[in-house]
Amino acid sequence: MDQPRYIAIEGAIGVGKTSLCDRLAEEFGFRTVHEEFEENPFLADFYGDRQAYAFQTQLFFLLSRYRQQLGLFQQDLFAGGIVSDYLFAKDPIFAHLNLDPNELTLYDQIYSLLDARVLKPDLVIFLQASVDTLVGRIRRRGRTYEKNMDPQYLADLSEAYNHFFFHYGETPLLVVSTNELNLVDQDDAFEDLVHEIQTHRGGVRHFVRQV
Q: Residue 178 contacts by C-beta under 8 Å, 6 or more apart in sequence?
């Protein structure tokens, strides 16, 4: 496989997806696709009462992500690549964590119709971090709607992400532990990651820096 032209970055809330997305796009001269989480009118209420607002929050995200993905079909990836700070296929992670059985049945029917039309990335980068690391990063960025986030929810979400990507096989996958890495501000670590991306040839690889 040549250097990927469509890269998706994934990981739990606060792991640093968007920051890495922007730097990789700058490095490769690619366009960015950012998840439109701030446009979700239910998100702040969801963090205050997950049970009451889960279904509305989930459907808004699903349809918003799908609308963005449809736009990718109309773009020539060979004329200029794309780095996205989310993977459409991760949407069910949140649904299975938050929805009740009846809501999940309806969600799964909708998702299966939409997923068939979504463009698959050439490479997915899965960023891992401990729950303590995630909590610290979320606090530092200081988003108002995240101030009521339950740490147990973050722990459950992190576990669900690990389970999802342990079984993931749709595209080449690069797994990166970020507990001790600052891939945005540490130039040497970033350069090593860029080399790993450029030499990835399929399957699952784990990014381990040589000390």
A: 11, 15, 16, 127, 128, 129, 133
The tally of domains found in the chain comes to 1
Q: Would residue 1 count as lying in a domain?
A: no
Q: Which residues contact 50 (CB under 8 A, 6 or more apart)?
A: 98, 150, 153
Calculate the alpha carbon distances from 166 to 84, 89, 104, 144, 173 in Å: 21, 14, 22, 32, 10
3-class DSSP state for residue 39? helix
In whole angstroms, give the CA distance from residue 59 to residue 40.
10
Looking at residue 74, what is its pLDDT?
Answer: 65
Q: Is the pLDDT of residue 211 over 60?
A: no
CATH code for the domain in which residue 61 is found: 3.40.50.300
Structure tokens at 132: 């303590």
42 alpha-carbon distance from chain centroid: 19
Among all residues, which ones are annotated catalytic? 85
Range of the domain at 193: 6-207
Query: pLDDT by residue (tens digit) across 167-194?
Result: 999 999 999 999 888 888 889 999 999 9
What would the two tokens of residue 201 be? 């040839």
Q: What token pair was written down for 112?
A: 């299966």
Record the tokens describing residue 139, joined without a space. Answer: 């606090």
pLDDT at 76: 59
Instruction: Give which of 123, 126, 127 is closest to 201, Cα–Cα.
Output: 123
